[in-house]
Amino acid sequence: MNDIPPPKQIGPVKELALTGQLMPWKNSQPVLLNMQGVGPDTFYLPLFEEEDQLRSVLVGIEFESIKMVEDGAEFLDSIPLDVIVITNLRFTEEGNVRFHQVQR
Fold first, then answer.
1. Cβ(85)–Cβ(45) under 8 Å?
2. Which helix (H) or strand (E) holds 24?
3. % helix, strand, coil for the chain, step of 5
4. How far apart are CA 16 and CA 14, in angstroms?
5. Please, are residues 78 and 27 in contact by the beta-carbon 8 Å criterion?
């Protein structure tokens, strides 16, 4: 049983446009992340607005290329529901991880 509480919502719900977002790619699939403090079976698919942001946040994480989401709705339909899609992944000055989670 996982005793770790789920992420809590901070701030208002926002509409996110996924078309045009960028994702790291390796071995013919998107790179999925695990986060410290979250169960080992929880995977996140990070999307970024800009390549520089992707590269700076994912320092030390291997990927072969960067792919762009061509159609946001079609993209979401292709991702398994147990994979959590996130955008705007960033680190705070305190070292915390912040992101926007796509609700489906």
1. yes
2. strand 22-26
3. 15, 30, 55
4. 6
5. no
Element of type H or E holding 97: strand 97-101
Per-residue pLDDT of the chain (104 residues; tens, 9 = 90+): 456 666 677 777 667 789 999 999 999 999 999 987 788 889 999 999 999 999 999 999 999 999 999 999 999 999 999 999 999 899 889 888 889 889 88
pTM: predicted TM-score of the whole model, two decimal places = 0.81
Nearest to residue 18, comparing CAs of 55, 47, 43? 47
Rounded distance between C-alpha atoms, residue 40 and residue 34, angstroms: 7
Kindly report the number of other CB atoms within 10 A of residue 85's CB atom: 23
Domain ranges of the chain: 22-101
